[in-house]
Amino acid sequence: MEDCIFCKIVNRELPGEIVYEDDRVLAFLDIHPKAPIHLLLVPKSHLASIQNEGSEDVAGELVSAAKHIAKEKGLSSYKLVFNVGREAGQTVNHLHLHLLSGGPSELTI
Ligand code: AMP
Ligand code: ZN
């Protein structure tokens, strides 16, 4: 999708510190980390929000990739966050899962 920053990172049109990739999911470092480890996991195929039809399968793939990355990095404790809608803090309209670790447990993003 044009003018979507996360699609551009997926397509290598914008730089991203990519830490994981498979055929459906890309994970990269958040540019403004809110915790010592702050990753964003996105579907390679554009989908705006958890509110969209059929997002459950995509969300499952992101959670599955997050578990895989956490295991690989030896993270036993972490936070997984979907912001849904602008008032909840969603600023990028390409569905994404935040993975945060190493910060205070009361952290909100
Ligand atoms: P949200 O507020 O849930 O929509 O999260 C969007 C996140 O994307 C924020 O935490 C931003 O810091 C992050 N972000 C925005 N632009 C970039 C970028 N070019 N590369 C990496 N992370 C970004
Ligand atoms: Zn997109």
Description of the structure:
- It is built from two helices and five strands.
- Strands 1-2-3-5-4 form a five-stranded antiparallel beta sheet, covered by helices on one side.
- The longest helix is centred in the middle third of the chain and has 19 residues.
- Helices cover 23% and strands 22% of the residues.
- The model has no long low-confidence stretch (mean pLDDT 95).
- The radius of gyration is 13 Å and the shape is globular.
- It is α+β, with helices and mostly antiparallel strands and 109 residues long.
- The protein has one domain: 2-Layer Sandwich (HIT family, subunit A), CATH 3.30.428.
- Bound molecules: adenosine monophosphate and zinc ion.
- The site of zinc ion has 6 residues, from helix 1.
| Coarse shape | globular
Estimate the strand proportion. Answer: 15-25%
Secondary-structure element order, N to C: HEEEHEE
Overall mean pLDDT score?
95
Number of domains: 1
The main sheet orders its strands as: 1-2-3-5-4
Count of beta strands: 5
The helix tally amounts to: 2
User: Bound compounds, please?
Assistant: adenosine monophosphate, zinc ion
Taking the sheet with the most strands, its summary is: 5 strands, antiparallel
What is the end-to-end distance?
A: 25 Å
Low-confidence stretches: none
Radius of gyration: 13 Å
Under CATH at level 1, the class stands as Alpha Beta
Give the helix level as a range of percent.
10-25%
